[in-house]
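Structure in, sequence out. Go:
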């Protein structure tokens, strides 16, 4: 390959916008299909072509400018948000919405939309994008933003790399000291799904002073003993439970700070063990690590709380799974939640294709989503994001079942004015 920055036949590593332009034009002249990556990780759930030619922006990772007056930061698209946030911290500033792990890049997050447990308050990551620079699929540089070329701006945000490569972004930041903002967790636990959904709805509608919020529901497959007992297999029943967590500002005393240290060390070790514990034998450890997120410490800093999933859950949630996310308008939140739950439970019962079914939910008050709803002829509303993760057995889902599920979700969205959370397909 002629581009000096390619490290293999399949990967380009541009250092600046001019490199990106050359890369796009070179591959175009060779009729190569380019796949964009923010960093090194391949995210589970993306369909990659069999042999993709990848352009990774991981060397375009600079913070270009912090504007204290305007409360904005300008970054290259490959900058990791955790690093940007750390740099902002030195000025008493921070990013209002960051992803749940430390390797997420600004361009990658803007290309999927970006929601977090702070979205009930601050919206989506793309709500914080003031403007951006990009290279289109013909290799031309352009800029767009909230105030200019707005249509193009909306087309590129959330497009999953298909509408061009984002090379730099300007982001809104807020005044916040994440290392000294202490949060206290109020956790409500539920064994009843109806009560869980009711509580989630009421917290999402009226979040009060909560800085972060998240609800999780877990529904294990019916447990069966391995050997036949009497005439058949004994069914031990399904374990179902949920938790709603709201994190509010607090002033901690010394004892609570010490408790937080111990709690966070224990969860980190559990996460490390879970990531090492493979196969069937590792399942209890991985489940325990997932549980550790639900039983988070009473007191923690905002920075710790934002990455809680990174320390335990991400390493515990391995294995093939079907995931789907839906933005449910608050006016039909409960109905969407029940219908999605029923859809997956019914498929599990009928085909046995899923084992554990889990759901995560929180509020999303987003300018972008309201504009998107209006553009689709729907009433603009506030939303609850509801994501379902269904563990697969066996590893692959038969295509006719996938079709059934996708059309079931589409029908729920159509009839409830909900929107799928996806990267622009
Ligand atoms: C639909 C979807 C939604 C997700 N939402 C969330 C979420 O809300 N919160 C969360 O914590 N995690 C979310 N994830 C996981 C999320 O993708 C990753 O955590 C994060 O986006 C990965 O960032 P990355 O920089 O590694 O990007 P990658 O995984 O490399 O890329 C993500 C997507 O963005 C495109 N892309 C990457 N860089 C650029 C660029 N510079 N210009 C144009 N396109 C680019 C890629 O082609 C790909 O489609 C989501 C995943 C998917 C598939």
């Amino acid at each position: 390959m002629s581009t000096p920055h390619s490290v293999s036949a399949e990967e380009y590593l541009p250092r600046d916008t001019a490199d990106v332009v050359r890369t796009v034009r070179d591959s175009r002249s060779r009729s190569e299909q380019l796949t964009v990556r923010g960093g090194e990780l391949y995210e589970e759930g993306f369909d990659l072509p069999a042999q993709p030619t990848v352009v990774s922006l991981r060397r375009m990772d600079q913070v270009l400018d912090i504007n204290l007056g305007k409360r904005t930061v300008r970054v290259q698209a490959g900058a990791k948000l955790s690093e940007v946030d750390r740099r902002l911290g030195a000025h008493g500033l921070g990013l209002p919405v960051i992803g749940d792990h430390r390797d997420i890049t600004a361009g990658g997050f803007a290309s999927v939309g970006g929601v977090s447990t702070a979205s009930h308050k601050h919206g989506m990551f793309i709500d914080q994008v003031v403007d951006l620079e990009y290279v289109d699929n013909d290799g031309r540089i352009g800029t767009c933003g909230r105030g200019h070329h707005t249509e193009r701006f909306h087309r590129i945000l959330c497009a999953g790399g298909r509408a061009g490569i984002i090379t730099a972004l300007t982001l809104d930041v807020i005044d916040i000291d994440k290392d000294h903002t202490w949060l206290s967790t109020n956790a409500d636990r539920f064994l009843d799904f109806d009560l869980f959904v009711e509580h989630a709805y009421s917290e999402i509608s009226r979040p009060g002073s909560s800085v972060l919020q998240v609800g999780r529901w877990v529904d294990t497959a019916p447990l069966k003993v391995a050997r036949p007992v009497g005439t058949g297999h004994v069914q031990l029943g399904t374990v179902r439970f949920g938790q709603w967590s709201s994190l509010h500002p607090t002033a901690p005393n010394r004892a609570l700070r010490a408790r937080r240290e111990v709690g966070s060390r224990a969860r980190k070790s559990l996460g490390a063990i879970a990531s090492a514990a493979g196969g069937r034998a590792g399942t209890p450890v991985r489940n325990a690590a997932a549980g550790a997120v639900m039983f988070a410490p009473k007191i923690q800093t905002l920075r710790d709380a934002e990455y809680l999933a990174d320390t335990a859950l991400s390493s515990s949630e391995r294995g093939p799974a079907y995931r789907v996310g839906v933005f449910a308008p608050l006016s039909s939140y409960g109905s969407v939640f029940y219908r999605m739950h029923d859809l997956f439970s019914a498929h599990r019962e009928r085909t046995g294709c899923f084992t554990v079914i889990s759901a995560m939910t929180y509020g999303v008050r987003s300018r972008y989503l309201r504009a998107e709803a209006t553009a689709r002829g729907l009433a603009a509303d506030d939303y609850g994001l509801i994501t379902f993760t269904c563990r697969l057995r066996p590893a692959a889902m038969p295509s006719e079942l996938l079709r059934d599920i996708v059309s079931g979700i589409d029908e729920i969205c159509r009839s409830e004015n909900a929107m799928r959370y996806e990267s622009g397909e």
